[in-house]
């Protein structure tokens, strides 16, 4: 579905991504793990067209989107849940969700999706008219995920959805990711919480200083010695 | 209150207000001290329109733009130049052989034209300038406004702008109801825009550009849209101000004028339309009327009250502004809007309100009981 070949990104003099290759299959959960500064967020941002690529190509459903702008990429069905939640703090929960559907014109479909998201996150329905800044961290994360689903994406990319959340809420978030995936959305997940991410992933990549050093099925990587040492603390 | 009830109440209040203005205009003679009321209502509503248009860019879209006086200047001139009666042009353009333009257009279209010309200028300026961020944008727009002012005073353009001389004798209005209704309609249009999906996109850009872009919002296009619409209404505000003043001169549209609007927007609350409106009327009422006494010497018996002299008003004003910036950082309304329910709640919570006292005691007792438990 999404094929990344030899992706390179420079930030000034820093070579942040050095030839990353990844392949995301339809209907799967793929995770990308790595330490801070490995280039995980940069990978997502460059797929979205939020960061300039200095080399390589991104192919989505057989179409080259390397040079497309963000708006076209969203229209093609890729959505990003940014790191650190980034909900729109002064707007209500409903307004936030409607902003996710900004490029869509089908009112009926938007309404249906709004209901789907409210069944996925009943908490958001309770707080429909509340200002987003007053939500708890977990609720904000749910809102951010719900908002990116409102563009009805085929591929959802999540940047550290568990960041700064209590363990019990992290569990909720991961079970919701699985549910979203069951609804037919492919997921590309970035995580520091490597264990939880690998457990639900069909396939995973390990990124180190801009290079993919290891890849394999999620379950295989959990038992891999190098991964255990570096990311699972065992 | 239900939605219909609120609508009905709002309509009644507006109708009563307009009727009252109409009635008072008939009975208050122009030499009376109370005729100041109309100055405040007229100028206040014009300032409210410009302040709301500035709030659209600065408060709702989060762009720090300081070009408002420039766009008002364009609007004021576009209006005045096309409505000076042909017979009067020889007198007005006395240094430029009666000027270049020898026709007039109806007032309504001239006002609309004022907005459109300002919007076109905003579009062209926005192309390079809106790629800048925060302070740089402010500097660029401020610079533009000053350049426009200089160009309009340029003698080579005299046949159109009358150089640095006054423009006068253009069409004006008779009743204070005209600017009030015109500004009311314009502000209502801005309200509709802010409550639409475009308004949501503007606010999203203000709150987080990266997240907004990830939602598929075209940052530049929306900034441009907000900037152009804001300038359109600033242009209309300029035209109305010209009508209010009956004469205009480019040298009046200084950067200081933009700061007045910035002040109103900040006092009213960045991101609150009703806040801007309330602050406009307060600002104009204080400056033109209530604080006037500070500028004249006052004797009680033989004792001259100290400090009161010409210009002291501005000192008091500055102090008030500092107090607001220090202690009322969010302004009168913050990002909230006026609502009837909010007003009711405010009345109920007034300290002197007898009806609220039993409720407060009950709450206090409950709290104490909770603490004791």
Question: What can you tell me about this protein's structure?
Answer:
The complex is a heterodimer of chains A (234) and B (373). In chain A, helix 7 links the parallel strand 7 and strand 8. Chain A has helices at residues 40-48, 70-76, 93-100, 107-120, 122-126, 137-149, 167-182, 194-200, 218-223, 225-232; strands at residues 2-11, 14-24, 29-33, 55-60, 63-64, 78-81, 155-159, 186-191, 203-208, 211-217. Chain A has one domain: P-loop containing nucleotide triphosphate hydrolases (Rossmann fold), CATH 3.40.50. Chain A has ten helices and ten strands. The mean pLDDT of chain A is 88. Chain B is an all-alpha fold and 373 residues long. Chain B folds into two domains: 36-338, ABC transporter involved in vitamin B12 uptake, BtuC (Orthogonal Bundle); 344-373, no CATH class. Chain B has 16 helices and four strands. Chain B starts with a helix and ends with a helix. The mean pLDDT of chain B is 87. The interface between A and B is medium-sized, with 24 and 19 residues.
Helices and strands in order:
The complex is a heterodimer of chains A (234) and B (373).
Chain A: E1 2-11, E2 14-24, E3 29-33, H1 40-48, E4 55-60, E5 63-64, H2 70-76, E6 78-81, H3 93-100, H4 107-120, H5 122-126, H6 137-149, E7 155-159, H7 167-182, E8 186-191, H8 194-200, E9 203-208, E10 211-217, H9 218-223, H10 225-232
Parallel strand pairs in A: 3-8, 3-9, 6-7, 7-8
Antiparallel strand pairs in A: 1-2, 1-4, 4-5, 9-10
Chain B: H1 3-27, H2 36-60, H3 68-83, H4 89-92, H5 107-129, H6 134-152, H7 158-161, E1 167-168, H8 177-194, H9 197-207, H10 209-214, H11 219-245, E2 247-248, H12 255-268, H13 273-290, E3 299-300, E4 303-304, H14 312-327, H15 340-348, H16 356-372
Antiparallel strand pairs in B: 1-2, 3-4
Uncertain stretches of 5 or more adjacent residues of chain B: none
What is the CATH fold-level name of the largest domain in chain B? ABC transporter involved in vitamin B12 uptake, BtuC
Please write the CATH class name of the largest domain in chain B. Answer: Mainly Alpha
CATH fold naming of chain A: Rossmann fold
Rounded average pLDDT of chain B: 87
> Could you spell the SSE succession of chain A in H and E letters?
EEEHEEHEHHHHEHEHEEHH
Q: Separation of termini of chain A?
A: 34 Å
Which structural class fits the helix and strand makeup of chain A? alpha/beta
- Would you identify the CATH H-level superfamily of chain A? P-loop containing nucleotide triphosphate hydrolases
Q: Could you say which structural class the secondary elements and strand pairing of chain B correspond to? A: mainly alpha
Shape of chain B: globular
